[in-house]
Amino acid sequence: MDGLAQFVFFLVGGLAILAFAGDFLVNGASAMAQRVGISPLLAGIFIVGFGTSAPEMVVALDAAIQGYPELALGNIVGSNIANVWLVLALPALMAPIAAGAMGQRTALIAMLLATAAWIVIAAFMPLTLWVGVAFLAGLIGYAIYTYVDLRAAKARGIDVPIDDEDHGLSLGRTIAYLAIGIVGLPLGANLIVEGGVGLAEIFDIPEEVVGLTLLAVGTSLPEIGAGIAAVIRQRTEILFGNVLGSNLFNILGAGGLVAMFGPIEITGTFVRYDHWAMAAAALTAAVFILTNSKVSRLAAAAMLLVYTLYIYGLVRGWNLLALFGG
To answer: The dihedral of CA 106, 111, 117, 119: what is its sign?
Structure first.
């Protein structure tokens, strides 16, 4: 097997392992949460939210450990862009997606603050150990706030929607699912990083571009799968929550872990182009939620067009910062 075929095999194989391992982890963790008596709603928010973001977190961490920070940063930023303009759009082509459900505005505010913090920090300073600590602390703080807020809502008699799916797993199968997920995620991540770096070297493509495109879309596959499944089950009201939660975990979770290996300078295409796209994607989600609008098929087509334009601009090396004299 020559070098090109080997790296393609690593990349495709790693993505496949990542998708299966992530699915096993989410199902196993959700079943375990039910066994120990965790609220189904909380399990849905945090376990599914974490589970669908686990590929981004593990790939970013693995890339940082191996000394490829640009690959890690590209995966985080690119996934947050793809989560809105791609992950929301594809299911919406099948059926309109409702926005504005309970808890989404709070999650939106948290996601917007995290996005703004990432962009501002990148503009003025590198990612450092203390930035990583602050990001992880913010994620823990948000989790605690959400837990307390949901408990208070239930105490006031507010009807809190829950994910009441019966996973039907025995204890043995639950443990096996968790084990497969825990072992499979880092294995798939390592293969993806090896394949992505190898292809970047063969075709002389910057590592950050590989992270922003191939890795970003690949690690967003769990979110795409969850979105399509939600449409099939007619549970589209949970899609925005999943996307917001995933973006929040990507920045504060994956970004926080990567920053622990700092200082890492965020420069180049991120500052000139991609951070502007990430901000625009976050604001796109905000428009739908704040206006309680549905993502129609027309809106979905428009978002896919915008995402295609973003990829084209990335490949062409567009510099949006130059519009403001940067």
So the answer is: negative
Task: Determine the Cα–Cα distance for residues 117 and 139; give it in Å rounded to an integer.
Answer: 13
Which residues constitute the domain of residue 116? Answer: 3-324
CB-neighbour burial class of residue 57 (10 A; exposed 0-12, middle 13-18, buried 19+): buried
CA distances from 27 to 180, 228, 236 (A): 11, 16, 19
Residue pair 274/78 in contact (Cβ under 8 Å)? The answer is: yes
| Angle between helix 104-124 and 129-155 (nearest 10) | 170
Residue 162, domain CATH: 1.20.1420.30
Amino acid at the residue 217: V
Query: How is residue 269 written in tokens?
Result: 């295409």
Cα–Cα dist 264/126, whole Å: 5
Could you tell me how far CA 268 lies from the centroid of its own chain?
22
Q: Please identify every stretch of the chain with a pLDDT value under 50, giving residue numbers as ranges.
A: 40-41
**What's the number of domains the chain is made of?**
1
pTM comes to 0.83
CB atoms under 10 Å from CB of 153, counted, come to 15
Q: For residues 157 and 166, what is the distance between their CA atoms, to the nearest angstrom? A: 24
For 13-50, the pLDDT digits (tens) are: 887 887 777 778 767 776 776 676 555 445 555 666 66
Beta bridge partners of 97: 295
CA distances for 315 relative to 143, 217, 242, 273, 324, angstroms = 37, 15, 29, 11, 21
Provide the residue type at 41 as one letter. L
179: tokens are 């084990």
Q: Give tens-digit pLDDT for 222-263.
A: 777 767 766 776 766 667 877 888 899 899 998 999 999 878
CA 77 to chain centroid: 9
